[in-house]
Structure formats: C-alpha cells, structure tokens
Amino acid sequence: MDLTVLVDNNCKTNYFLLGEPGFSVLLENDFHKVLFDCGYSDAFIKNAYKLGLDLADVNEIILSHGHKDHTGGLLRLESLYRKMLMAGISLNLKTIITHPDVFEPKLNEKSENVGFPGDAGKLCDIFDVEYTREPRWITPKLLFLGEIPKYFNTDYKYKDETVLVYKGENGLIIVAGCCHMGIPNIIEYAKKVTGEPRINTFIGGIFLANKTEYKIRELGIYLRDLNIKNFYPCHCCDLNSKIVLSEYVKIKEVYSGLRINVD
C-alpha cells in the first residue's frame, strides 16, 4: 500500500505544493483508497490534483479526532462531491469512520471552539457516517484503532482520538493525526489489538510543540527502547522536539507530497 502526505505544515523545494497547519494522508493500493484526515482547508484537494491523485473514488474517510486542522477540509471535500454529483458524475459510496465524539465542540483555553467548523448533520446525504469506539478492520491489513485507553498518563480531556494501523510484513505502520493521547498509549494499544509487537513505521503529528525537554526525552527513551525502524514526526511538533528526539531515534522528513510504500 502506498502512502502520500496530501498536506502537512512543511513543504519541499521544487514540489510546488501547498502547506498549512493541518494534516491529510491518502493510502491506496490497486483496489482500495482511504483518506486519513482532511487538513484545515482545501489545500489537500489542490495538492492531490497536482500530484495526479483522484479523490473521487476514495472508499473511506477516517477522521483522527475533531480538531479543525484535521476536519475543516471535510467541508471542502463535501462541496467538491456535491458539485461532481450536480455535474452528473457518479461517485462510489463514501464512508466516514470516526469516533462518536468527533463532531462535539472542542474548547480551547479561551473557550473558543477549535473543533469541526461545520454542521455534521448535513454530511449524511453525501457520506455514510459510521461511528465506533471499537477497533474496526477496513481491509484485512488496515485497522481503524478506535478509542485509545490510557496506559500512560495524558492530560488530553477528550476521548475521540484514534489512528490508522497497517499490519505489514515487517511490523506495524501507524498513521496518526496529533497523538494527543500520547504515542506510548497509541503504540501499546496497537500492539495489543493486532497481536504484532514490532513497530516498523510511525508517521504523523506528535503533539510536542513547546513541550518541556523532560517530556520530549521521556518519549525519546520510549522510542529508542521500542527499536522503531522509521520515524516521521510532523504537523504538531517543532524543531526543538525533533532535535532532542534525534538523540534517540533517526528522524525522517515529512512534507506535502511525501510518498512512501508501507508494505
């Protein structure tokens, strides 16, 4: 299965793609397409077009959690699909798979809603929305992990965050939105559900921007002991966290347009 980062905070020279403070990934093989998160705007749609990737035949749309930098672009995708239908273009059924709380308001410290900026009720005539707290296999190898338990302490007050897990020949590939629940909680639950102890690849936001050096090094020790093969931190981390983590694990670059094979 091929993975393409449709949008991330970072861009790469000569790619001429858009970046924004959001995240979106397309996973695809010859038979299946899964969109993971939709970024903040329509940047992921414009980048997909430039990359020659067709979003019309996406099968499932996975929302990692409710924050608008992962769900805001869903409104633009909904608008695109409506225009295609009005133009007489037939579309296959699009299923949104997500946690039941994903469209609930998410208030920041100023009591501002930083969650989904639209009306979730209007999605139902375009998408089949499937809510679940439980793990759900999308394909025989691709897993929606569901609600993540707290094995280790985290101060994230919502329960809506989840990840995608691909069970490859050489271990698990984990695709995450922000990791508000903490990477150790996510990885340990993924190992438990899949029965696979090896972690081959992690890609996604790691929620370490402006965190203390102690918290960053704590994660670094965990990752080093995990013996992770490929580590792609992006989106909600900063340069300092990458520098500190590089003492424990090799950091790989992420940018809009990055393509990797996850088999």
Characteristics:
alpha/beta, 6-stranded mixed β-sheet, 7-stranded mixed β-sheet, 263 residues
Please specify the SSE layout and strand pairing.
Elements lengths: L1 E6 L16 E5 L4 E4 L6 H8 L9 E3 L5 H4 L1 H14 L8 E4 L29 E4 L4 E2 L4 E3 L18 E6 L2 E6 L6 H12 L4 E7 L7 H14 L3 E5 L4 H7 L13 E3 L2
Parallel strand pairs: 3-4, 4-5, 5-6, 10-11, 11-12
Antiparallel strand pairs: 1-2, 1-13, 2-3, 7-8, 8-9, 9-10
Structure, briefly:
The chain has 263 residues and is an alpha/beta fold. It has helices spanning 43-50, 68-71, 73-86, 183-194, 213-226, 239-245, and strands at 2-7, 24-28, 33-36, 60-62, 95-98, 128-131, 136-137, 142-144, 163-168, 171-176, 199-205, 230-234, 259-261.
Describe what this molecule looks like in 3D.
It is globular, with a radius of gyration of 17 Å. The protein is of the alpha/beta class and 263 residues long. The protein has 6 helices and 13 strands. A 7-stranded mixed β-sheet has the order 6-5-4-3-2-1-13. A 6-stranded mixed β-sheet has the order 7-8-9-10-11-12, covered by helices on one side. The model has no long low-confidence stretch (mean pLDDT 96). Helix 4 links the parallel strand 10 and strand 11.
Radius of gyration: 17 Å
Share of helix, binned? 10-25%
**Biggest sheet: strands, sense, closure?**
7 strands, mixed
Average pLDDT number: 96
Order of helices and strands: EEEHEHHEEEEEEHEHEHE
> Number of DSSP strands?
13
**How far apart are the termini?**
6 Å
What does the oligomeric state look like here? single chain
* Continuous helix count: 6
**Unreliable segments of 5+ consecutive residues:** none
Which term fits the overall shape? globular
**Secondary structure category:** alpha/beta
Please report which band the strand proportion falls in: under 5%, 5-15%, 15-25%, 25-35%, 35-45% or over 45%: 15-25%
Which strand order do you get reading across the main beta sheet? 6-5-4-3-2-1-13
